[in-house]
Protein: Alkylphosphonate utilization protein
Organism: Idiomarina seosinensis
Amino acid sequence: MSDFPACPECQSTYTYHDGNLLVCPECAHEWSDQEPASTDEQPIYKDANGAPLTDGDTVTVIKDLKVKGSSTVVKVGTKVKNIRLIDGDHDIDCKVDGIGAMKLKSEFVKKA
């Protein structure tokens, strides 16, 4: 066999070099041979000002946000307590007083 590392996605041993990248022919995954095969780092979530957010933080909404499927609006200056960070496009899971459970984007809040 080859001296190349196994694919980090499907663990296939049939990987090969293609220019600067390693390629897996079974799942078509490409990766650099300089980067580690797997990283267990947690993503860093930042607010609109660039301050890092963590679970349990209190944030303030910086823009009026329309609630999808409803005529209500989350007003600018609304404080949201005890946020939970999740993966995805809307990366904050929280409860907004008077509205209920919802998901927010971190780019529309600032750390209180």
